[in-house]
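Changelog note: in this version the structure field was regenerated for every chain. One regenerated record is shown below for reference.
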Amino acid sequence: MATITLHDIDPALKAEAIAVMNQHGLTASVAISAFFRKIINDHGSGSSCFCCDLNPNKGTLQDLEDASAGRVKYIASKDTDDLFKKLGI
């Protein structure tokens, strides 16, 4: 079995999510495995990925259309701070 590290996730977010998982008797490993299984099952069944069921706004719909058509804009960055700076966030 592969090892997944969660070091790139905000520590407060991770702690809160793990606390919720624990309330439901889940470990992070079980929850993440279930998440991965959902992605694989949705993709394999030909249905849209669960994240596509979220009613995206007009800009996101355009981005999805551009990505499907191969009109994707890429921004290379060395880390999230650099990316946010380049994006003006």
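Spot check on this record: Residues 28-44 form the longest helix (17 residues). Residues 65 and 71 are 8 Å apart (CA to CA).
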